[in-house]
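User: Quick one: structure for sequence A, then sequence B.

Assistant: Sequence A:
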Amino acid sequence: MKPNYKVNMVMNNNVVLAINLENKNEVILLGKGIGFGKKKNQTVYYPKDVIERSFINVSQTLKSDYYNLIQQMDLQVMGVCQEIILMAEKAIGELNDSIHIVLTDHIGFAIERIKQNMVIENPFLDEIKVLYGPEFELAKEALNRINESIEIVLPEEEAGFIALHLHSARKNLAVKTTLKNTKAIKKIIEFLEGELGTKVIQDNLNYRRLLTHLRGGIERVEQGIHFENPLLTTIKKDFKEAWRIADKVGEMIQVELNLKIEEDEIGYLCIHIDRLLRLKS
């Protein structure tokens, strides 16, 4: 078979940086065993069915950033990060191209911290598990892959940060935006616990629904999406205590995130808060 790729760099047995000989595009290729025994500048033939994913970096800035990472980072780490991204895209859909830079850079930094015996702390881990459930499950699998491939022990706290990166790339958000929203939600939960006079139970279905609604409500406002609440008048009349608390939460969101939460959205939030109040009584 006529060669269709020229190998630029082998990251691991499953990930290769190569040039497509037909169109001269530089691509990252992922497929089982495609890097095994391959050398730099070797021309090879890869059938389409062995390439699980090919990533073409169309942005010159991203391409430059990626090459900078290659110069600084262990290629084994680069390779396993690409495998993690492929795994995530198969599970939750296409991710923003920036994930190839930001997640790889983050994981590389986390590995260095562990090697220097630094502790990784994640004060938002409990919230992340609920808010970004599918991403967190993937992040735990990613953690296992990293720990096995690099022979290191990254803690569960790191899975929380990986989940934030995956969610951000899934929603085309900056990681700092997802983190800021998560911080705000944690503050709101602490406020609600003060109002309820008790710690919320993490596994409680009503608590999980509340967190999911808070995240969804914030994202809807950010995207300019508005839902009318046909029960708003009844909610304000029948759930006075829950409405008072929900209204305070709306004020907190405006202060923390500079987002105006409309009464229709507060009404839906009120229903979730009322459920928690009923559990308390």
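Sequence B:
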Amino acid sequence: MKTQKLVPAILIILLFLACMPVTAQIDKMKDLMDDEMTEQEDGLATLRFFDALNGTPVGDATIAIDGIGELTTDGLGRVRFDSPESDAVYAFNFSKEGYITADFSFEVIVGTIFYNRFTVSPIIDMGSIRIVLEWDRRPDDLDLHLQKTGGYHISFHDMVASHDGMVRLDLDAMKGYGPETITIKNVDDEAEYLCYVHDFSNKNHPKSKTLSRSKARILVYGEGQLLHIYEMSEVQRGNRWNVFRLVEGQFVVENEVKKVR
């Protein structure tokens, strides 16, 4: 029975692989196939954790999952545990020396974890903010942007645009998943910032729904904690997501999807 259950999942993965460039196949699909086969064969669910600054797996971290227990990530940044029998949202805590301790959750739908990848941040100085974009395997290229009114515009076009070099794009991802990360080392409490996400893969398709189906979310770290998690509320047409404004030190939710060229 286990072999029979695996066949449809493997066929879907192989079909997806055949439609992708060779260089992206390994990077994008090895984790997905590994997790899918482990879940089907062994009944084990997987959570994965990645560093916001370099995208590498975070090992030796403690993951305390409500109702399941305390686990430690392996060298690939994974924890594996018996798949929950009940569809629900499960809260958990991430902690590791040198990283910001953070509370997350994952959702189980029809016995499968809806999204199992989480980006965690190394500790940053007080007064600093780290903005992280993460998403699913498609589309390939989402871009994180930060505009300071009357000042700079940080993105892949200009990764260090502030006059004092105190703001930078730490990581630019172009093969799905992310993370893309922007760090503001000294927030100007008298300024206004706009954070948005552009679907570069669909830059010529402003009516695309791919961005809103990408499971994209923004994590904001600061003050020694995970301050905010922003997610799109519904499937919409558009290739730009205005996420939030930071106005004189206060976060203002935008959550607006727009059609741009």
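The chain has three domains: 1-30, 43-119, 124-258. The two ends are 49 Å apart (CA to CA).

User: Thanks, that's what I needed.
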